[in-house]
Structures are given as structure tokens and as C-alpha cells.
From TrEMBL:
Organism, scientific name: Draconibacterium sediminis
Classification lineage: Bacteria, Pseudomonadati, Bacteroidota, Bacteroidia, Marinilabiliales
Gene3D superfamilies: 3.30.70.20
The name this protein goes by in its record: 4Fe-4S ferredoxin
One matching Pfam family: Fer4_13
């Protein structure tokens, strides 16, 4: 399966800018005041890193679509 889309879902919780996502996938996630997903990437190249970032996000706001 390939990841086609990655986003920050603030519908339940909000980003706390802990930078955990950047630690796991620095090419995919950038953190300033809040995390942003770098647009235009081929997310299939970073699938494992994206999954680990989502699993380790303390507020569980990283979502992805296969």
C-alpha cells in the first residue's frame, strides 16, 4: 500500500509543536508554531517515517490516506 495524502487533523486535538513528527520524518514535517506537511512530496518514499510519526504523535493529529 502506498501513502497518497498526509495532513494535520486539528478536529479533536491541536498541534502542540513538540517536533516529534520532525524527529521521525524531517523531510515530510516542518514545525514552526504548528506542524505543517511539506506539500508536493512523493510520500511513498517516506511511508515508514510517516507511519512512525503518526504513531508517536502525542496528540494523534497526523493522518494519512493510502
Amino acid at each position: 500500500m502506498t501513502i497518497k495524502r498526509v495532513w494535520r487533523d486539528d478536529s479533536i486535538n491541536t498541534c502542540i509543536a513538540c517536533k516529534m513528527c520532525h524527529l521521525f520524518a524531517p523531510r515530510v514535517f516542518k514545525v514552526f508554531d504548528k506542524m505543517i506537511v511539506v506539500p508536493g512530496l512523493d510520500y511513498t518514499l517516506y511511508e515508514q517515517e510517516i507511519k512512525e510519526a503518526a504513531e508517536n504523535c502525542p496528540v494523534q493529529i497526523i493522518k494519512f490516506e493510502k
